Write the structure tokens for this entry.
Amino acid sequence: MAWRRPPRPFVAQRDGHTALNLTPDERQALGRLLPQLGDLFDTPADPGVRRLFPTAYPADPERDADYQRLMREELVTSRSVALTTVIETLEATELDADQLNAWLQTLNAARLVLGTRLDVGEDEHPLPTPSDTDPEAAAHLTYLWLSELLEFATRAASDTLS
């Protein structure tokens, strides 16, 4: 039997849709991971979400507090709606443009939260390959996997615009 390259996880289609080619194990892993992300949206004190709801005015705490009061609920709602869409389409084989945008937003949010917890800087190159003795090896691998999924989803979104 000849070796076949696995399909890309997100592939733009000519009709403007995107094929979703995730393995059952990938779908199951996302099904376990993503609900945890939703729980964090309502936990503003959790340091893992600081990059999802960044400080708008670092030099002016009073002005930033006003911004957070005005915008946080809208940001939480937007992220929650996108997350719900992704969870509802986990078993789909095709996504429309709005669903793909929800996937982009949710994959990015999950990656940002995990990257924050792993202390990955914004300008850093990919994480080093974790060793078998690294207690955070699974988290590092998940971060790299989410980064790869986000890259493929971004390419597919770009291709549908072409």
User: Anything to note?
Assistant: The radius of gyration is 17 Å. Residues 10-161 form one domain. The mean pLDDT is 89.
